[in-house]
User: Which sequence fits this backbone?
């Protein structure tokens, strides 16, 4: 019981996030429970709800940190130079990030927010920041296109990138293709950009 007085509210929150992240890394989202988190940090299960509204709130917090880490990696890809090359580098950065810890990565897409709950604004802002990296890199290739067209193009491309990254992280890619994930990723980006620029040329 004495341990409880040793942690501030913020310290306890970090303990919960750390233990939960480890659980997901080891067993995926299905291994996460209030009882197991509490056991690992030596607190009662009810203590979790002093820091988080519910498990969905906790999982969203972990996802938010994951998105921050991904954005950090993407923004570390040098700007300037050939925009086509930067799109390739962003896609392969995304692929490498997904491969670092597949179970934690899959959390972003396995966890479904209940229909009764609105996605928090802070979460949407993190997603928009990620897409902003792609949109900004596409802009030099987007002369004559309006902002909404570029926005949609970035999301279409990234949906394809995510598909390859997810199949690779789940070790399912070999079922449909013999090539390495990075080869498929480069093919996808190259072909998409060729079509994207050809479409612009046809419209002028």
Assistant:
């Amino acid at each position: 019981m004495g341990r409880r007085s040793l942690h501030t509210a913020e310290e306890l929150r970090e303990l919960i996030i750390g233990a939960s992240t480890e659980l997901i890394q080891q067993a995926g989202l299905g291994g996460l429970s209030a009882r197991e988190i509490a056991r690992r940090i030596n607190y009662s299960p009810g203590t979790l709800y002093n820091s988080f509204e519910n498990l969905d709130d906790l999982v969203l917090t972990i996802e938010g940190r994951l998105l921050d880490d991904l954005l950090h990696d993407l923004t570390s890809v040098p700007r300037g130079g050939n925009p086509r090359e930067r799109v390739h580098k962003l896609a392969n950065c995304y692929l490498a990030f997904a491969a670092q810890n597949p179970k934690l990565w899959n959390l972003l897409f396995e966890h479904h927010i209940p229909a009764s709950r609105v996605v928090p604004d802070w979460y949407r802002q993190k997603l928009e920041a990620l897409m902003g990296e792609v949109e900004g890199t596409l802009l030099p290739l987007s002369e004559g296109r309006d902002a909404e067209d570029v926005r949609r193009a970035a999301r279409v491309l990234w949906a394809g990138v995510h598909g390859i990254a997810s199949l690779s992280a789940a070790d399912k890619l070999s079922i449909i293709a013999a090539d390495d994930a990075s080869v498929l990723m480069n093919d996808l980006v190259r072909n998409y950009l060729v079509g994207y620029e050809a479409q612009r040329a046809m419209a002028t």
